[in-house]
Amino acid sequence: EAAAWTRRDYEEVKASNPDKQIVIGEYGWTTKSDSCQMLQDEASAAGQALYLGQMEQWLKREQATAFVFEA
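The chain above was modelled as a monomer; its predicted structure follows.
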């Protein structure tokens, strides 16, 4: 679901800027959360692996540029 949301945002920006290279400046998935933006049970190593794997496959297919955020 999260990777699909990221792809939708990317496609929306790309459609609005057809002559520009679109770069995802930051993407990633936390393994711990104390934020209201992400539920604690969604923040996990398994969730991170799933999201990053889905994004890597899509980025390769799309030949898109993106930067993984890691802290």
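The chain is about 45% helix and 15% strand.
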